[in-house]
Structure formats: structure tokens, C-alpha cells
């Protein structure tokens, strides 16, 4: 077990031996003889050691056509790791030190300034993810208070986390208003109490209601909050900063519109349509953001220097009008010209028009035109498993019993790996 210290080899061996003892006690005839037991133990030790030494996460090739694939890390970072100042991260930096005053400073001072310009809010901070942003906002503004939210907006987000569970963890009292399919402004107004209530609106980012339905626009909720002098918290979800001019994203709400519509605080994720590292953004009224910064929870939820640098890098691209260089936006807007010339196809493989998806809990009903490969004449499931079992897994999907690979979500360096896989079929 080269590459593992002897102390840890012993711990690993004891763990594997313990597992085998339990199996032999439960199934005394599981192995033919002592030699077969020994062989199985050695094989398990080697496999476990190899698994422990394996760097994580490892590269995969995304041929699913889902741009923000939650299982594959959501927004890819592209060249960001090469473009940030690695010397500032590998050595010492001015993370919490200000050169002008020669004193300690806030680690999010630059972030607050750039978020103010990008969103039109008075201030902003960042925490570890979108759920953390909502938790901090509600714990700061609504602890021991009533938070009014429409029944239709008590959604479940990725990983089985539910909005009402995050609300309860924040220390507030959940008050449901309206019905599952219809919520009106008067439903909020009847239960709103000055200094005792907070209004919450959650974007239904991963599902759509149709038919006999009604919901309250954020702008109307913002006016009610202003009249009643209660905060309005808006969970935007996907982190679309401003209107992108892409038709299939027209229905997706933007952060700057949330601020303009009167939300006191807007929270969102940074690793979805914003296209950066996993983080949660909080923007809004300056005094309230400052209260969140002083909340002890903020220290538990704040970003480390690496993620802060990567997030700042992405926001700088927006500030410079260069968001199209971010991998998410390249994937969403690329016309895919030239992709056909990058691959030499074999018999039974054809270029076909496909439909890609935004993913990441955004635009659940929308898809957009893409391009990819269809593998015919062989079992789609067999091909899917063979491509996924490669040293660098290539992921696709089955449609109409045929295996497909969408090239929209491929990086330039992925084409050589895909060509090799095609040649080895």
C-alpha cells in the first residue's frame, strides 16, 4: 500500500478485517477456503488503498447537454483558477487587512462594492451557499418573528432540503398564506404585523404551476412591505444578475429586478446562472446587510479566501461586460460552429440536432437547440456504461433506445478524449 503511512495502513487493515469477520459470521460459507478469504482481503485492501489515494473530485466529460449539472459540480470554472492571483493564495494576502489604514478590515469589503454596482443594491455579502444565505437573512431579520410565505413557494431544493426546514432552523415562525394554487396580496396583508413580521417570496425555480393558479408579484409584495414597514426577503435562486437577452431565459427573474421591485433583501446562489463557485449572495438595504455581517452565524457561513477569489473573478467579468467568457455563458450561447470538424465519426454514429437544458433548478420547462452524436446499431445502455467506465468518464444519455452525447457541454480539450473513445469502440 505505497503512498499511505504505516500508521494509517494499520487502521485501514483493521477496518477491512473487521468487515470480513462480520461477513464470515453472517455467511460462514461465503468463501471456499482460507486461501480464498486471504485473497479477498488482500484485494479489498488494495482497492481501498487505491480509492483513498485517488484525488477528489476527478474530471468527467459532460455530454448530457445539461449546462448546470448538479451531480457534476454545477457551474464549471474554466480558466478561472489560472487567471486569479495564485501568489496571493499560496502566500500571504490582504484578505482582512487594509493598506490605507494599516488596520484590520473586512474580507468582503471589495465584494460589497462590486455587488452594489452590479445589482443596484446598497450593499452585499457572500456566504457558503444559497441555503446559507437564506438562513443568515432570516436568522438576522426574523428570529422569533413570523415569516409569511405562500404555500406554493415552500419548495424543496437539491439534496432533499426544504425551504420550511431552513426557515425553522433560522429561529423564525413559519406562517403559511394562501393556498397551494392561489395566493393573493390580501392573504399577506391580513397577517402582516409591523415589527413582528417578515415577508418572504421564493422563486419556484425547479417547477412550474399551470392552470387555476395565482401568485403575488414581488413588486406588489415590496409595496406592502414598505407600507407596513416590514422587511421583504426574496430568494431569487439561480443568481441571474441581469436580463441576458436570451429568449429561453426570459422567464427567469433577475437579481437587479428583485432589488428594483422593492425587496429589502435578495438572496441567490452563485454557482448556477451567475456561473461561479458555490456561494450564496445577499444584497439589499445596507443597514440590514451590516446586521447580518455582525451576526455570529456569518462567521460560520462566510467564504474562505479561495472561493472569495474565484467569486470575485467571475463578478469582475460581469463588471467589464465580459460575462460571455464564463463557461456557463459560453455553453448557453455558443452556436457550435466548427464542432463537426473536430471529430471523425465511424459507421453507426451520426450528427443530430438535440435539445440542451439549463439545469441547476433553473428553467424546468425550457430547452434550447443543440448538437450532438447519436450512436445507433448497438445497445444504448451498453454504450452508456462503456463510456462512463472509461478512465475519464464520458457521460451521455439514452433517447429512443440510442445513446447520445451532446457537444454543447464539452470543453475544447474533451474532443480528443471523445475521439479516442469513438476509435476504441
What does this structure look like?
The protein is an alpha/beta fold and 425 residues long. The protein contains 16 helices and 16 strands. The chain has helices at 6-26, 34-53, 80-83, 86-90, 109-119, 130-142, 163-169, 185-191, 218-228, 255-260, 286-294, 296-301, 305-319, 327-333, 380-388, 414-423, and strands at 61-62, 66-68, 97-98, 103-104, 123-127, 146-150, 173-177, 197-202, 232-237, 265-269, 280-284, 349-359, 368-375, 394-395, 397-399, 402-406. The strands form 4 sheets. Strands 5-11-10-9-8-6-7 form a 7-stranded mixed beta sheet, with helices on both faces. It has a 5-stranded mixed beta sheet with strand order 2-12-13-16-15. The chain has a two-stranded parallel ribbon with strand order 1-14. Helix 6 packs across helix 7. The radius of gyration is 26 Å and the shape is globular. The model has no long low-confidence stretch (mean pLDDT 92).
Rough shape? Answer: globular
Structural class: alpha/beta
Overall mean pLDDT score? Answer: 92
State the CATH topology of the largest domain: Aspartate Aminotransferase, domain 2
> How many domains comprise the coordinates?
3
Tally the helices: 16
* Uncertain runs: none
Radius of gyration, whole Å: 26 Å
Largest sheet: 7 strands, mixed
Span between termini? 34 Å
Amino acid at each position: 500500500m505505497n503512498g499511505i503511512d504505516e500508521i494509517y495502513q494499520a487502521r485501514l487493515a483493521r477496518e477491512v478485517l473487521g468487515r470480513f469477520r462480520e461477513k464470515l459470521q453472517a455467511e460462514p460459507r461465503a468463501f471456499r477456503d482460507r486461501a480464498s478469504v486471504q485473497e479477498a482481503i488482500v484485494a479489498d485492501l488494495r482497492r481501498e488503498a487505491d480509492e483513498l489515494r485517488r484525488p477528489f473530485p476527478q474530471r468527467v466529460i459532460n455530454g448530457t447537454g445539461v449546462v448546470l449539472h448538479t451531480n457534476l459540480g454545477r457551474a464549471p470554472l474554466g480558466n478561472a483558477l489560472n487567471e486569479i492571483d495564485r501568489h496571493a493564495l499560496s502566500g500571504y494576502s490582504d484578505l482582512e487587512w487594509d493598506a490605507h489604514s494599516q488596520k484590520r478590515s473586512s474580507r468582503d469589503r471589495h465584494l460589497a462594492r462590486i455587488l452594489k454596482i452590479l445589482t443596484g443594491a446598497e450593499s452585499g455579502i457572500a456566504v457558503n451557499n444559497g441555503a446559507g444565505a437564506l438562513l443568515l437573512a432570516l436568522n438576522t431579520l426574523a428570529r422569533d418573528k413570523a415569516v409569511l410565505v405562500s404555500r406554493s413557494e415552500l419548495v424543496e431544493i437539491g439534496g432533499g432540503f426544504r425551504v420550511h426546514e431552513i426557515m425553522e432552523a433560522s429561529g423564525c415562525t413559519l406562517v403559511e398564506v394562501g393556498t397551494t394554487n392561489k395566493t393573493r396580496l390580501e392573504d399577506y396583508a391580513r397577517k402582516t404585523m409591523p415589527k413582528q413580521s417578515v415577508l418572504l417570496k421564493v422563486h419556484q425555480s425547479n417547477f412550474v404551476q399551470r392552470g387555476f393558479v395565482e401568485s403575488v408579484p414581488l413588486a406588489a409584495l415590496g409595496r406592502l412591505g414598505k407600507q407596513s414597514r416590514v422587511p421583504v426577503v426574496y430568494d431569487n435562486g439561480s443568481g441571474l444578475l441581469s436580463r441576458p437577452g436570451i429568449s429561453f431565459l426570459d422567464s427567469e427573474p433577475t437579481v437587479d429586478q428583485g432589488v428594483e421591485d422593492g425587496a429589502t433583501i435578495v438572496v441567490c446562489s452563485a454557482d448556477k446562472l451567475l456561473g461561479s463557485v458555490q456561494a450564496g449572495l445577499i444584497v439589499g438595504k445596507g443597514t440590514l446587510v451590516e446586521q447580518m455581517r455582525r451576526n455570529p452565524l456569518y462567521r460560520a457561513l462566510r467564504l474562505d479566501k479561495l472561493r472569495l477569489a474565484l467569486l470575485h473573478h467571475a463578478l469582475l467579468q460581469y463588471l467589464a461586460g465580459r460575462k460571455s467568457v464564463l463557461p456557463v455563458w459560453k455553453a448557453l450561447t455558443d452556436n457550435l460552429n466548427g464542432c463537426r470538424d473536430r471529430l471523425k465519426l465511424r459507421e453507426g454514429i451520426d450528427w443530430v440536432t438535440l435539445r440542451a437544458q439549463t439545469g441547476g433548478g433553473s428553467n424546468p420547462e425550457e430547452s434550447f437547440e443543440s448538437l450532438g452524436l447519436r450512436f445507433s446499431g448497438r445497445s444504448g445502455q451498453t454504450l452508456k456504461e462503456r463510456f462512463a467506465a472509461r478512465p475519464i468518464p464520458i457521460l451521455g444519455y439514452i433517447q429512443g433506445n440510442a445513446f447520445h452525447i451532446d457537444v454543447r457541454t464539452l470543453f475544447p480539450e474533451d474532443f480528443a478524449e471523445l475521439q479516442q473513445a469513438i476509435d476504441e469502440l
